[in-house]
Amino acid sequence: MNTPPFHHAKRDIQIFAFLLGFLSLISQVILLRELSVVFYGNEISYAIILASWLFWIAVGSQAASVLLKYFHQTQRILNTVFMILSILLPILITACRIVRSILQIQSGEMLSIAFMSGIAFVILAPLTLLLGASFPLMCRLGEENTPFGKETVSSGQIYLWESVGAVFGGLLLNFILLPNFTAFEITAITLFVILCRTALSVKNKKTRIFWGGLPVVLFLVVILSGSVERYDRWTRQKQFAPLAVVTSQDSIYGNITLTRTADSYSLFENGLLSYSTKDDFSSEENVHYALLSHPHPKRILLIGGGAGGSLKEILKYGDVKIDYVELDPKVIAVSFHYLPAPYVKAIRDPRVRVIYTDGRLFVKRNTAHYDIVLVNLSDPTTALINRYYTLEFFKEVRKILNPGGILSFGVTSSENYYSEELKEFLRSIHSTLDQVFRDSKVLPGDRNIFLASNQPHILTYDSRILIERLKERKISTQFVREYYIPYRLSEERIAGLKNIFKKDGPVNTDLKPVVYLFDTVLWSTHFNQTFKKAFGALRNLTLFHLEIMMGALWILIVILQKKNPKLSLGFSIAVTGFWGIIFQVMIILTFQSLYGYAYERIGLIMASFMLGLALGSLWARKLIKHCETHLLPIYRKTQAALCVFTFLLPVVFEIFSRMSTGDISPDVLTYGFLILPVIAGLFGGLQYPIGTFLCHRQSSAASEEWKTAGNFYALDVFGASFGALLTGAILIPLLGINAVAVFCGLLNTAVLGLLFLL
């Protein structure tokens, strides 16, 4: 058999591991972004996507650990797997974009949780099964190519190089690829890298030159011919059919798509409708009730949605000055380029100052004061938007309002009938608002408009006052006028709302975002009662209940461990995976609450976590080599440190929250915050290699470390899959981020107790 020199084989395995991490992270971020457009990007959909991704990786790793003993020629299998992986990515992006068309789901039509789960599990399965299988494949390849007496290429080394590849992929995505290339262009670059690597593994020199030159030629032909750009436009058109796509552009914040129907334009951000022109009714309602409630509105802050008509309506008040905050500059760039002249004129009006930043961050750091703050965003369907309906945000707004100033925002409601789910949703927002402002009014309608002021007698339900001001200010409107305002403010409908608010709802906060969960429950009732019933059953879940379940599980493992001593090690690895993904969700949501642009930094957050994994794996490798006889005590100490770190998280989050309101640069705080994923990843990077080594040392099959590595890898990822689904969808909205951190600390403490029984 023609076996390559050991150092060449070792280098090849390290490169394969690096490419696995690189491809995994790039694929995960791109497909998360693509599926977010399909599912409208709320945290339930994120949880489903991550759970699906991790579940199939675990299945792939476990399946490979069982089936590989029946196959030979591991190198050839691995080459084939990587070729298929690189080709699958553009196919799956296409599937994400045309799935609605295939299933005949209209653009803007809501999907049930069951439907989202089905789509995510089917689309992600081919890629993630192969990604999961690649790890034990490489572990086996390392054993096959290690001469007798040489140190094998261990699973810890492969884990290390996979983490390094993921770090490189995350940094490349965040700083170069996402800001400058579309998803298909990024996949073309990735395919080019994989093809080149595969060509280098060919032994025959002439054949290697041919296969090395082929990807270069293909890459240049595809890019220079414009094929990628045309294909990108075609798939976006399929995604938004039957609407005509005027333009679709990717930014670091996501996808911006402008569609046209007759003479009306609609702009979608990550699949969510941001605005529609010719929807004068919504634009008037969003603006005029607030401005007519104020005796002399001069200084206005508008957060989001201005390009579609709200700016045009505010500018009817001749002597106003407007600060218009928009997160994504591409929203304005697209609006400038394609919208009709009146909308472009409103944006360019000298009374308007456009500010490109996160609205929440602007409010937090701004020193100017306003008569009106208009939050013109969609319903709190995501944690990102929920941040504009929390106790903390309302307090921040109160600080920048002039005496008698008004905060205004709206949420989807019902004209006359209020379901129990809708009542809970509205009560939570109202109770949160009343914690901050002395007076609040809610105007009934298909979209309830909330008005709040810290000065009494400013707000009114008296339609005559509003109509009189409308005439005095000579404001021309089509809908908000003398014949409609009395209907909107009828005594019967207002009395119905007041009756709902006699009962208080839970307060919505940054770290316990209950409103977006209520909104999700409300949304789920459009399909069936399953999620509603599940939420009802879990509604009273407390940390105490979780502690009881955790105690029962601990006793069960103690009993079973007598027959299988390796059970505690396997359980500790699963819990580390479970904790790792929960930590990432907590970090993303907390980062989102404090700084407002986690979507932009998601690749960087993942890269930071993977950097910690790489450093931990490197450290573990040295410990295994030099401290083999003391590894179990070291493993216990690592677990103890993990417990302390987890219990300290609420304190750390509070420190960063207070620092974010000071004069420290947001960039400094951002990169300081990213130290947390590095520390968390460090624990995972330490525990997996050491745990695998300890378990394998107790195994009778001493020559099959790859099987142990594959099994432990599957446990790690299964735990992460369960954590992703449980946390994003249930635990954080119900218990809050701090309580979830305490739960994770207690869970890790239970694992520490099991380790001392070994």
Structure description:
The chain is α/β, with parallel strands linked by helices and 758 residues long. It folds into 2 domains: 390 residues, Growth Hormone, Chain: A; 235 residues, Rossmann fold. 67% of the residues lie in helices and 10% in strands. It has 29 helices and 11 strands. The strands form 2 sheets. A 7-stranded mixed beta sheet has the order 7-6-5-8-9-11-10, with helices on both faces. The chain has a 4-stranded antiparallel beta sheet with strand order 1-2-3-4, with helices on both faces. Helix 1 packs antiparallel against helix 2, helix 4 packs antiparallel against helix 28 and helix 9 packs across helix 10. The longest helix is centred in the N-terminal third of the chain and has 34 residues. The N terminus is likely disordered.
